[in-house]
Amino acid sequence: MSGFKIAVLPGDGIGPEVVKQGVKVLETIGKLFHHGFEIQFGLIGGAALDEKGVPLPDETWELCQKADAILLGAVGGPKWDDLPSHMRPEKALLKLREGLKLFANIRPVKFYPNLAFSSPLKENLLKGVDLVIVRELTGGLYFGKPKGRFEENGKVYAVDTMYYTYEEIERIAKVAFELARNRKKKVTSVDKANVLETSRLWREVVQKVASRYPDITLEHMYVDNCAMQLVKNPAQFDVILTENTFGDILSDEAAVITGSIGMLPSASLGEGLKGLYEPIHGSAPDIAGMNIANPLGTILSVALLLRYSLRLEKEANAIEDAVEKVIADGFMTKDLYLNNPSAKKLVSTEEMGDIVVEYVKREYHREE
Ligand SMILES: NC(=O)c1ccc[n+]([C@@H]2O[C@H](COP(=O)([O-])OP(=O)(O)OC[C@H]3O[C@@H](n4cnc5c(N)ncnc54)[C@H](O)[C@@H]3O)[C@@H](O)[C@H]2O)c1
């Protein structure tokens, strides 16, 4: 029996509700596949502020340092909106990403036929959409120096600096090429090399990394064109590799393709196997405590955790297959159900977690 330490940080709003379902599924996988998952809970965000006075208490930081992987719900909410920036719940997330050096953000975007109705795109454009965005997370415009607001000769100006080193580009490019190896073997590197010096270096380094992966097709695309192609022909993409700011914008654009923000998982990875896994949505204070939130983004984040941090591919596939079948059979939370002709049964957050657990078990016993 393999032993893995998993830190679970439910956070705020719907965080605890959706994380509870993710943990149910994780425990089911542990029992079926005989893995010892040592699950330990920690406080983060507003919940931590209320109890400990800081958004990331030392105990939580230590828990995360010792863990093989971290599962997070979401942080934030109106209750803590007026706090100074260093005390805000979101600060905890930034500290975790920075402290654990999680430089690669991975967001898979997959189309489920029964959710076509919820997507703003026409169904014929959605068929076959199965892409993943690899976004550089700790460099570029958000962190480059100089940064700030300055005054000179009576004039006020503000500066943000887009800064990338060769090594920062090389390590994120490797993540993208490694991912493509187990997928459709295509990397689209997105930049603005016609204008930006960082993009020219980006292109040069990505090209060099590509030469070590002769089995992968590399194409370069300008970010403005990519934004257009994502709505015109999203099925053309396999792995999209891009820097921090471009990735921030493109991944939100790509997210709407699947119909509900509640469906999408994400992984943030560093040099080693340790990763932080969370649904892409926030704490949704408008529906918190109502047992109607969609937990599938969190459950699919558990699948990513098993795949990337624990190297348990079969187990990750078991969850993804179960989710696909649950949706195909028409079980839907409110966000997916409303006006959807493919929906058969409206289910609560808790019920959705239980149904996924049942489907995981059913599929496992069928294959035994
Ligand atoms: N990573 C994070 O923890 C994270 C990310 C984004 C926002 N936030 C925080 O969350 C709070 C709310 O932010 P927001 O309203 O802009 O974004 P949000 O993602 O929380 O909600 C946007 C809309 O989507 C709906 N929604 C979100 N997740 C859902 C789910 N699983 N099922 C069904 N519906 C869902 C919400 O009800 C809301 O109408 C803010 O405090 C923000 O700072 C946290």
Overview of the molecule:
By secondary structure, the chain is of the alpha/beta class. Helices cover 42% and strands 23% of the residues. It has 13 helices and 14 strands. The strands form 3 sheets. Strands 2-1-3-12-11-4-5-10-8-9 form a 10-stranded mixed beta sheet, sandwiched between helices. A two-stranded antiparallel sheet has the order 6-7. The longest helix is centred in the first third of the chain and has 19 residues, at 15-33. The structure holds nicotinamide-adenine-dinucleotide. Residues 14, 18, 74-77, 90, 93, 261-262, 278, 281-287, 293-294, 297, 335 line the site of nicotinamide-adenine-dinucleotide. Its EC number is 1.1.1.85.
